[in-house]
Write a structure and sequence with these properties.
Arc Repressor Mutant, subunit A; two-stranded parallel ribbon; 5 helices; 4 strands
Amino acid sequence: MPENSSSFFEKVYEVTGRIPYGRVTSYGAIAKYLASSGSARMVGWALNASHSRDDVPAHRVVNRVGLLSGKHHFQGSNLMQQLLESEGIQVIENKIVDFQKHFWLPE
């Protein structure tokens, strides 16, 4: 990982912490907001490293088409989906229903 990855990770955590309840965004949208549009995968690494932090709602970040691509990084087989559903977001076959309706673009 790049030398400045810890500061990048902190920036990812700050943006992720602003995702409103009941909304989701994508790894790529966060990377683009941070002026690092080719770094969607690194956003995923940051979120995978955030599980011990209560201030980072990593379950609200999905891939660009609404798939729960990071769900295997959560404890239990269905925790990411359960957290999203508890916020009123319907998930069918690991994909968010009405993804665009729930999508939040960092600004």
